[in-house]
Amino acid sequence: MSKFHSLKIKNLERITEESIAISFDIPEHLKTDFAFKSGQYITLKTIINGNEIRRDYSLCSSPKSGEIKVAVKEVEDGTFSAYANKQLKIGDVLDVATPKGHFVFEPNDSKTKHIAAFAAGSGITPVLSIIKCALEEEVKSNVVLVYGNKKTKDTMFLDELLQLQHQYSDRFAIQFVFSQTQEDDAIFGRIEKSTVNLVVKNKYKHLDIDAFYLCGPEGMINTVKGVLEEHNVNKDTIHYELFKASKPTVISTEGVASGNTKVTIILDDETTDFEMPQKQTILEAALDKDIDAPYSCQGGICSSCIARITEGEAKMRQNNILTDGELAEGLILTCQAQPTTEKITVDYDDV
């Protein structure tokens, strides 16, 4: 399980009017702990107005750089995002969990690959890390990015992406999409079916895409996935990560009993036993027992609370992350999982 470390802010960089990049100073003795794969994220924790706030942010740097860097876009009524954009200063200290996440790209320079990425808004952050890694560590691979925003001024990492395009002009292509302004060489509108077809069936049809990486709102991801599947793209080559669900969580109680379950929680090599109502999620019950279980969004979008069931069964309210294979291996999102058996053992360490 990822552990928190108090890290000092090394640098702050304004990248749009509403977003800021934060890099951290990593002490020498923690550099191994903070080694990461491109596409992974870190959890930031701090106290704001007397309340503990946790938020997940994808790393936008490349693993080769050794830099721990995230970007935070201020959102309406966002507690941490407003704090980060308006109050954080160089030298401030935040609690930072070590990197984790399954939305990853692992380079293999012995192969030539073609990669296509679709990102919208702040969904560019893990995708940028993946692009950098592919360009730096797979010297024969090609990358195509489709990147949607409202306007150029809202486009996170615009200058950095253009610099990468210039540096790797023979291997990296960008198709910008703007929904509120018309720009030269850009598509006007949103990332939709015709945008995906442009990449896979027209403009880049000469590339046999080996892997697709999607990050953005749920609607965009579902659209892109749907079109790719219509073209018989192997589902195993489509990787995605949500940063925002388009619909509120619908809590289903079907198949969940109204009794109690005896729970065993394994966390940081410690075992805790207690009884919980089956109407609660495992995470809710663990937090009620003052167990410091990992979590962030509590909405089934991030994977901070992931654990493995080694005994018993549970039903998840919703699942936007885990694959069928991972579910078959016993992995669950504890913020969504309600026990359905008299006994259940949940291991946070075995993931």
UniProtKB/TrEMBL annotation:
Coiled coil ranges: none
Q: Which SUPFAM superfamilies match?
A: 2Fe-2S ferredoxin-like (SSF54292), Ferredoxin reductase-like, C-terminal NADP-linked domain (SSF52343), Riboflavin synthase domain-like (SSF63380)
Source superkingdom: Bacteria
Q: Which InterPro entries match?
A: 2Fe-2S_ferredoxin-like_sf, 2Fe-2S_ferredoxin-type, 2Fe2S_fd_BS, Beta-grasp_dom_sf, Cbr1-like_FAD-bd_dom, FAD-bd_FR_type, FNR_nucleotide-bd, MRET
Describe the location of the 2Fe-2S ferredoxin-type domain by residue ranges: 261-351
What are the UniProt keywords, alphabetically?
2Fe-2S, FAD, Flavoprotein, Iron, Iron-sulfur, Metal-binding, Oxidoreductase
Q: Which CDD domains match?
A: fer2, PA_degradation_oxidoreductase_like
Which cofactors does this protein require?
FAD
Question: Does the record carry Manganese as a key word?
Answer: no
| UniProt domain FAD-binding FR-type: residue ranges | 2-106
Give the protein's recorded name: Ferredoxin--NADP reductase
Q: Which organism is it from?
A: Psychroserpens ponticola
Species classification: Bacteria, Pseudomonadati, Bacteroidota, Flavobacteriia, Flavobacteriales
